[in-house]
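[Discussion] Sanity-checking designs against the backbone

I'm trying to build intuition for which residues belong where. Below is a structure token string of 385 positions. I'd appreciate it if someone posts a full sequence so I can compare it with mine line by line.
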């Protein structure tokens, strides 16, 4: 009878195996104790399993848009709309970049937790080649050998191979370059290739994955490449992008002309880049001693029209590739100093102050109440006659 009493026997087993394990532990390297289930060929493991040994990387990645590429409500709203509009065909478009694990497990209904992890560790470290805008964007080899920058990891859990691709912009190009029907919807990689940074070989990783001091799970100080990949969702990163200067003011009896300059000082691609519904807006305000002011704005953006000549404003339409032509693109290229002249009509008082600032604006058309607006730079000058 006792034999069938699992409660007792399993506790008994634990006691025995527990002491054997403790014995073994004193001989084996420490890592073995917390090893997650072994990696399997062809199966992408969850980020939590990597985090058992790479706690500091996991924490940064969790905050990144890569970790939220599926669960992000802005993506979900656009994906649902695209899915409905296309009778489900959108899954063959969107998921390759937003839920690439579905390429390996066929989970296009996004049911498995690992698929919902978006651009997850094991996927990105299994990429062996990329083909921007290719029929298939990646070659992957999923197993116990991971592609990394050094190629010297030799743990009981995984080995590693040195991958030049992981130190190159080509890795990012797979998803950050997107053309459909001859329309370049997103061209961050080619913008970068034609930039001064691209010419010098300053890759995406140098700006978006800088080495940072951190503490690993053994409490040791280490320096590790940041996996938070700050971009338009980071105020700190945004403020590195653009600088505005008020150069001169010309006064006439019927108008005031403000001459300004905008410099894309910090980005290795156009500003804004990526998904076209993001805009930069320059505001210029002239205020007289009487406190009356006038304001004007200039919008920097990429605008895409469909075959019928209508502007596409929804991410779901744009990203499905329904565009036919780029109707406007006045974004500021990497390294560019853009001269701008803003004219205010009517006389202005003798003493005026001019204020100029640039906002980064993203208002997804499908989610009316979520506008993202961040001030990137500001300048102010006073002028007397
Ligand atoms: C978008 C792809 C991508 C994702 C997702 C990603 N990594 Fe990385 N990882 C990289 C790249 C690229 C490098 C090398 C950076 C460099 O050399 O500039 C790297 C470097 C590393 C390194 C080496 C760090 C060092 O300083 O030697 C480790 C460890 C690592 N990643 C673990 C992880 C873990 C764990 C996760 C998930 C929590 C993860 N990565 C998610 C692309 C990725
Ligand atoms: C049992 C502990 C352990 C687990 C679990 C683990 N790693 Fe590692 N990994 C290490 C050690 C140790 C190194 C080498 C030293 C270092 O970079 O921290 C390493 C190095 C790496 C590197 C750098 C490789 C190189 O040579 O450039 C990458 C990338 C990496 N791991 C990714 C992952 C990913 C992705 C997972 C989850 C699928 C994972 N690791 C799970 C222990 C582990
Ligand atoms: C497998 C596809 C894939 C790869 C490879 C990839 N990314 Fe991404 N990346 C995405 C997606 C999808 C998003 C947007 C997620 C969202 O907002 O829903 C994103 C977002 C970002 C953002 C955040 C933008 C913001 O709005 O804040 C940055 C920065 C970024 N990626 C840089 C990189 C860099 C640098 C690399 C190469 C080291 C890289 N990515 C590789 C798919 C990828
Ligand atoms: C010289 C530094 C630098 C390099 C090189 C660089 N970036 Fe950026 N990137 C920035 C800065 C600064 C921003 C913030 C300004 C912004 O979002 O417009 C940014 C923003 C982004 C964004 C967010 C876009 C948005 O408008 O929200 C993405 C995505 C991105 N970069 C991807 C890349 C990729 C992919 C590469 C390589 C092909 C790359 N970056 C190369 C500095 C750089
Ligand atoms: C070639 C890869 C690729 C494909 C295909 C793709 N996306 Fe994306 N998507 C990205 C990248 C990369 C970003 C981040 C770009 C940036 O920040 O500049 C992004 C960002 C987005 C965003 C903005 C999310 C946010 O929070 O800022 C939405 C919405 C979106 N995608 C919807 C879709 C939909 C819907 C589809 C399919 C119809 C799709 N995408 C297909 C790569 C892709």
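Best answer:
Here's mine. Compare freely.
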């Amino acid at each position: 009878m006792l034999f069938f009493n699992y409660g007792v026997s399993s506790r008994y087993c634990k006691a025995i195996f527990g002491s054997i394990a403790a014995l073994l532990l004193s001989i084996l390297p420490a890592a073995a104790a917390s090893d997650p289930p072994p990696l399997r060929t062809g199966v992408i493991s969850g980020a939590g399993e990597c985090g058992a040994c790479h706690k500091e990387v996991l924490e940064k990645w969790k905050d990144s848009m890569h970790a939220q590429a599926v669960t992000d409500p802005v993506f979900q709203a656009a994906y649902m709309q695209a899915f409905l509009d296309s009778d489900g065909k959108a899954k063959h478009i969107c998921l390759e970049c937003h839920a690439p694990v579905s390429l390996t497990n066929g989970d296009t209904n996004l049911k498995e937790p690992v698929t919902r992890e978006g651009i997850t560790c094991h996927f990105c470290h299994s990429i062996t080649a990329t083909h921007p805008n290719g029929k298939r964007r990646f070659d992957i080899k999923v197993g116990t050998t991971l592609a990394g920058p050094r190629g010297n990891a030799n743990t009981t859990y995984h080995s590693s191979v040195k991958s030049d691709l992981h130190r190159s912009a080509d890795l990012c190009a797979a998803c950050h370059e997107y053309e459909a029907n001859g329309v370049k919807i997103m061209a961050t990689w080619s913008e970068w290739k034609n930039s001064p940074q691209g010419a010098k070989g300053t890759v995406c990783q140098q700006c978006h994955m800088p080495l940072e001091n951190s503490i690993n799970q053994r409490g040791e100080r280490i320096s590790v490449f940041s996996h938070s990949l700050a971009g338009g969702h980071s105020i700190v990163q945004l403020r590195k992008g653009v600088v505005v200067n008020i150069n001169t003011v010309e006064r006439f009896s019927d108008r005031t002309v403000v001459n300004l300059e905008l410099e894309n000082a910090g980005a290795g691609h156009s500003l804004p880049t990526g998904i076209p519904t993001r805009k930069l807006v320059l505001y210029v305000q002239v205020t007289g001693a009487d406190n009356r002011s006038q304001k004007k704005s200039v919008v920097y953006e990429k605008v895409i029209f469909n075959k019928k000549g209508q502007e596409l404003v929804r991410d779901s339409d744009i990203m499905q590739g329904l565009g036919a032509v780029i109707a406007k693109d006045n974004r500021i290229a990497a390294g560019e100093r853009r001269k701008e002249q803003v004219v205010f009509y009517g006389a202005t008082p003798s003493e005026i102050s001019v204020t100029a600032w640039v906002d980064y604006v993203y208002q997804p058309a499908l989610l009316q109440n979520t506008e993202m607006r961040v001030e990137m730079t500001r300048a102010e000058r006073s002028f007397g006659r």
